[in-house]
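README, section 4: Worked example with a bound small molecule

Sections 1 through 3 covered apo chains. Here we extend the same pipeline to holo records, where the ligand is supplied as SMILES alongside the sequence. The molecule in this example is potassium ion. Nothing else about the input changes; the structure line simply encodes the ligand pose together with the chain.
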Amino acid sequence: MIPRAILTAAEMKAAEDATMASGVSVDQLMERAGRAAADIAWRMAGKAHVLVLCGPGNNGGDGYVVARLLAERGCEVQVAALADPATDAARNARAQWPGPVDAIGDARPAPMVVDALFGTGLARPLGADLSAALCDLVRKARHSLAVDLPSGIETDSGALLSPVPFFDATIALGSLKPAHLLQPAAGFMGMTLVGEIGIAAESALLEIGRPTLVPPLPSAHKYSRGYVLVAGGAMAGAASLAADAAIRAGAGYVALAGPEHGEGPLALVQRLAVDPRTLADLLADERVDVAVAGPGLGLNDKAEARLESVLAAGKRLVLDADALTLIAKRGAETLAGLDAPPILTPHEGEFARLFGDISGNKVERAREAARRSGSVIIYKGNDSVVASPDGRAAIAPPAPSWLATAGTGDVLTGIAAARYAATGDPFEAACEAVWLHGAAARMAGPFLIADDLIEALPRALAACL
Ligand SMILES: NC(=O)C1=CN([C@@H]2O[C@H](COP(=O)(O)OP(=O)(O)OC[C@H]3O[C@@H](n4cnc5c(N)ncnc54)[C@H](O)[C@@H]3O)[C@@H](O)[C@H]2O)[C@H](O)CC1
Ligand SMILES: [K+]
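The generated complex, written as structure tokens:
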């Protein structure tokens, strides 16, 4: 699957300028944008009475186009504007709207509401009266569509600058923007569709899409499919979950090496490694592709020694949980010199421990963390962000909130290890793991527990063949 690009407001403006430099006018772009939005509105509500709310910028301009096109299809349309258009394109679009334009205060509730107040140009919160009116009108509508973005959202961070209602659908014009995937904004969009307006949308920031996996070659053997070694520690269950997930995610050979035998399928190889030196010996096996440390590792001296063995093994690494807490004490930049970039999978708390001083939006923070630590970062959450030290970054589609339960992170770690062993590319592996984890969660359904994710993994993987 070809991943979709995500453009910031500034990148969108640059892409728009480049398109115009090639001979397309802003009015043509606005006509395409309005047509794409009107088509969606028509499919959602047919001939229902429509209320179009227009702002002063080009988002409002899109709204006048929507109003004209829906009226041409026979809809009864009320247009309510916040202010007169402030751009030439929006003025032209308003001039082509043959009906009256009412003040926002005179907007009447309608079965279909189109929000064309503000898009990527929103610079500050909506006034309290305006956001209250928007919320009220959307709440009273049967269908609601946001043009480009719900008004009140900051494009690049996904922050809510003022209260925003829940929309049924949002049409992202030309390209996804970070707010279409980042929380809290993404939770207010409803179904998000990208409206094609003829802009070349290219970016180093991508949406994580369904991976394409290939079946093992006829010549495959267990080691060629990847050997993952999971270092266990104080809590056998967590390491077992990671190891079980790694073998279910397609690694050909998975060994669980801890101070006691763990759980898991019979296919899992249990190795007793009471002494950290035994762990080092197991890691010295040249067939080991990826080593995992963190889930259930513990935080005491023994855990430190085990982590030391893993870091010194010269293998590709996936580090999570307790390993991240231990690394935070010595500084994440100490990972920068490893032979291959490790994959780190911090949740919010672990990220703060590792990179507490980094500011900016979630994508900026993940990128800076990756650069500083020379690691691929899976910055987990409902809106997981993956960032690579080479500048590539990707945002996951919203994951089911049922994932908020013990052990699901350990499963993600195991999947990432299997994919890192298979691909050798930590960024690709991390993106694939995040997608598979989300897909398995959707398949496992409500009230899932971590074990259910592992059971659903083969079906999630099969969807990628
Ligand atoms: N990118 C494209 O290819 C196309 C995008 N289109 C649409 O245009 C908007 C972006 O338009 P822009 O004029 O830059 O910004 P906005 O319409 O979002 O708003 C800017 C406007 O509003 C004023 N303003 C900002 N914040 C506030 C506030 N809180 N209260 C009051 N006024 C505010 C600001 O000063 C400006 O006057 C994009 O999202 C698309 O919908 C085009 O259709 C063409 C193609
Ligand atoms: K809008």
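What to look for in the output: DSSP finds 14 helices and 17 strands in the chain. Residues 12, 16, 26, 29-30, 33, 55-62, 86-87, 118-126, 147-148, 173-174, 197, 199 surround LP7C6HRI (ligand 1) (CB under 6 Å).

Section 5 describes how to batch many such records.
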